[in-house]
Q: What sequence folds into this?
């Protein structure tokens, strides 16, 4: 069975040197986030992730959740693990103190969430969705609903679920058919939802579903959808959960991965209609739901990072132990970590994971600045940056995770294809991350059409300016490794700038162009952003080497990772640029019956 040890040294480096946790902790709202508190939280989360959640990961995958008598039963150990999670108040970490939260930075919560998902992604999906539900309700629900339901979600006593997808609709929310009929101070909900993650389970007494449905007078299309809070057990006057609402799981999906996470088909209104309560304004449900979805998209990008870290650890540990073949200058048979091709794979996994961590944490930091920046200008700047980076985090990190978890299997050779080693599970679990909460194609169209073309590339140009400042800083380095990083980063920035300018200049002449170029443009953006942050990491490590000898090996490894990323991953930017410039001609030329 594979183990997990949180990479606390690298996490602290990224938090402090790249994401600016120290500065964020000085915001008045985050006065409790002292260095001692932060260190204690990270250490305790690492302990719970490694000792409690990680041992359940492989058995949970083998056993899976099952549906019995209309209720989902999770694998052995999951309910007890959740009880410990709840009693340790992990759910409340970044939440509003007015509703019982601890009010700590989103950046710190991101680091903690990385550990949960690395240790046991199937388990961590449940609190992840609850956190997103809390974000939605605090922004859009009435004070009464917040008092009755949000406080219970923050405490971890109840969990949340997002109910969007229907069999005929998929990602096309305009095709939703679920109905909501007014009935006094509430509504009666009927319909069916599919792919509802943690839609039912035995971890808590109540589950708060956030459901999209149409009112009888709703206009057609996306503008006719409203959002409703539909609890498994509506709250009674004394605050306790009442009788079972008219919603039930009717089946569980049999999935490629995350077997311990129940993915439910939910039915509403088989016996008169499920009681629901309006969240936000009528016919404005999709706008409300995007608050939850954007929060979840950042979290799914974090899953790409987390599962890659777990796969890397297992591949590294196996390569240190597996003896096979010979290498030059080593007389006897060697462990495979000494073979250059294994080094290529491990370095790709290591550098790629470190780049993802930096991008995820930087984006989480923008969320803190968006809410608590010192003035309106700073808050607006970071709100725009968060909006720009979110689709990149979600899609690039999860796409790269497909490559890195696959390499994890390859390092193991034939043993990687055998389930008992655990390497295959990480690959299977990672596969969903490019699909749920909006596919890679949806994220790419969002980036190109809404975040670049809509504002003429204004926010992207500001980000490119920040990257160019790093190139200037690299110009002052006398380190050979960092000079190599500088050269490749400068090329990557130019490739991203050229791709953006070409899209801006040509998209109006070709209606297919944004869709045809968007995937490769997003991958270009993620690759260059990763290279920029790895360059910054190298500069920070170089400065630390000049200040102290403690952790010198760690800092030298950061510089090596930055160079490897520049030479072996950032160089992909040329390929991505060429695919963007190819436009849509060959992609759209064949007739449908020619495929």
A:
């Amino acid at each position: 069975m594979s183990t997990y040890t949180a990479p606390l040294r690298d996490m602290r480096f990224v938090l402090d040197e790249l994401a600016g946790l120290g500065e964020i902790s000085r915001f008045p709202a985050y006065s409790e986030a002292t260095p001692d508190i932060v260190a204690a939280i990270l250490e305790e989360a690492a302990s719970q992730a490694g000792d409690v959640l990680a041992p359940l990961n492989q058995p949970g995958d083998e056993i899976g959740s099952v549906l019995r008598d209309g209720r989902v039963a999770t694998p052995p150990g999951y309910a007890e693990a959740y009880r410990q999670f709840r009693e340790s108040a992990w759910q409340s970490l970044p939440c509003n103190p007015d509703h019982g939260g601890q009010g700590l930075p989103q950046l710190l919560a991101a680091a903690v969430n990385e550990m949960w998902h690395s240790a046991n992604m199937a388990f961590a999906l449940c609190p992840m969705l609850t956190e997103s539900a809390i974000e939605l309700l605090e922004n859009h629900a009435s004070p009464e609903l917040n008092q009755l339901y949000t406080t219970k979600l923050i405490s971890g006593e109840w969990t949340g679920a997002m109910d969007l997808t229907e069999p005929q609709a998929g990602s096309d929310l305009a095709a939703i058919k679920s109905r909501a009929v007014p009935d006094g101070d509430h509504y009666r909900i009927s319909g069916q939802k599919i792919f509802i993650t943690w839609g039912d389970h035995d971890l808590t007494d109540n589950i708060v579903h956030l459901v999209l449905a149409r009112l009888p007078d709703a206009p057609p299309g996306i503008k006719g959808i409203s959002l409703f809070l539909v609890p498994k057990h509506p709250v009674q006057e004394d605050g306790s959960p009442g009788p079972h609402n008219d919603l039930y799981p009717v089946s569980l999906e049999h999935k490629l991965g995350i077997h311990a996470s129940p993915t439910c088909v939910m039915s509403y209104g088989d016996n008169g209609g499920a009681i629901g309560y309006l969240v936000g304004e009528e016919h404005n449900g999709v706008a409300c739901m995007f608050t939850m979805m954007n929060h979840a998209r950042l979290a799914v990008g974090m899953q790409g990072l987390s599962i890659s870290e777990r796969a890397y650890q297992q591949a590294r540990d196996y390569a240190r132990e597996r003896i096979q073949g010979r290498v030059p200058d080593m007389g006897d048979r060697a462990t495979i970590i000494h073979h250059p091709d294994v080094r290529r794979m491990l370095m790709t996994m290591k550098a790629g994971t470190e780049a993802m961590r930096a991008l995820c944490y930087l984006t989480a930091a923008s969320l803190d600045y968006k809410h608590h920046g010192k003035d309106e200008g700073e808050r607006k700047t970071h709100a725009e940056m968060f909006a720009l980076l979110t689709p990149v985090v979600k899609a690039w990190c999860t796409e790269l995770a497909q490559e890195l978890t696959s390499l994890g299997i390859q390092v193991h050779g034939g043993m990687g294809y055998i389930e008992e080693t655990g390497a295959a599970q990480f690959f299977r679990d990672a596969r969903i991350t490019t699909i749920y909460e909006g596919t890679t194609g949806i994220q790419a169209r969002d980036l190109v059409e809404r975040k670049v073309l809509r504002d003429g590339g204004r926010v992207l140009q500001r980000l490119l300016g920040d990257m160019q400042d790093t190139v200037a800083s690299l110009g002052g380095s006398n380190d050979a490794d960092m000079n190599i990083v500088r050269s490749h980063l400068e090329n990557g920035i130019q490739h991203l700038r050229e791709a953006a300018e070409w899209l801006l200049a040509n998209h109006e002449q070709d209606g297919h162009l944004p869709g045809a170029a968007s995937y490769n443009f997003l991958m270009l953006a993620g690759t260059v952003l990763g290279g920029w942050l790895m360059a910054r990491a190298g500069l920070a490590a170089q400065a630390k080497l000049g200040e102290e000898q403690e952790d010198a090996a760690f800092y030298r490894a950061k510089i090596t990772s930055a160079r490897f990323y520049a030479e072996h991953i950032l160089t992909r930017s040329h390929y991505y640029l060429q695919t963007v410039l190819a436009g849509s001609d060959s992609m759209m030329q064949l007739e449908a019956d020619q495929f």
Observations:
- The chain is about 55% helix and 10% strand.
